[in-house]
Amino acid sequence: MTRSLRAAIAAADLIHVMAAHSPLSARLAEEAGFDGIWASGFELSALYGLPDVSLITMTQHLDMVRAMADRCSLPIVADIDTGFGNAVNVVYAVEQYERAGAAAVVIEDKTFPKVTSLAADGRQELVRVEEFQGKIEAACATRRSKDFLVVGRTEALIAGLGQAEALRRAAAYEEAGADMILIHSKQKTPDEVESFVRAWSGKAPIVLVPTAYPEMNAERIGKLGKIKMVIYGNHAIRASVTAMQQIFARIRHDGGIHNVHGDLVSVEEIFRLQGMDRMKADETRFLK
Ligand code: SPV
Ligand code: MG
User: Fold this and answer.
1) I need a surface site. Which of 4, 194, 236, 269 has the fewest CB within 10 A?
2) Whose CA is nearest to atom 5 of ligand 1?
């Protein structure tokens, strides 16, 4: 079932979407009060210990989206990278992602295989505007529900092509049917993105991923206007790595788990997140 993001976006000034790489992280994001889940390609790649360069297959990512949709009731924004090939691959992907329970797909205008956006020296190549319009059109024509959103993502700023090219591409993607435009930047300050947003005259709302320029908080986004969704792009995997590195180091240093024990959630908390209550109730009811 597609959880409607369109309705949520219409009802709120700004939607806060947290990255997740597993059903458990998606559930934690839901409990923390986020509005949606970002099924991040970067996070899933990192989970496999791999760079985010189109090594993870569509099937692997799709399986994770399905598993997250099964355990979390928030709308899922699926990061489908370049659409796994050309417009024909996009048709197949959108069919699959909508069926898997995603509420939206984000498709980016890079060539396949892509290179992760935030790497300082990343090789960034973009496809022709017309080719990417075909991908957006393919996604829009394939979706079954009008509530399933197609987000066109331009990497023009990431590729160093400048604001005019980013605006040209964003306008072309809106014309092709994109419901929203994701503008990505790896500048360390919000200036580049703020300038783009001020210059944007399209009707499609903007999506930001402010990983590189973290001072772009909700207050600052609100002042800028035109932005309807903020994606916290990799904060689930980074939070997990931070916690594991610190706790693992302490256990090695202390020669045991005696000191960290009190600083961790209890096993009972994990039982709760696993849904042990339901299992217990089923046991009582059905085991004879
Ligand atoms: C992701 O989380 O996979 C993204 C955002 O696409 S970024 O890694 O910043 O490109
Ligand atoms: Mg990605």
Assistant:
1) 269
2) 233
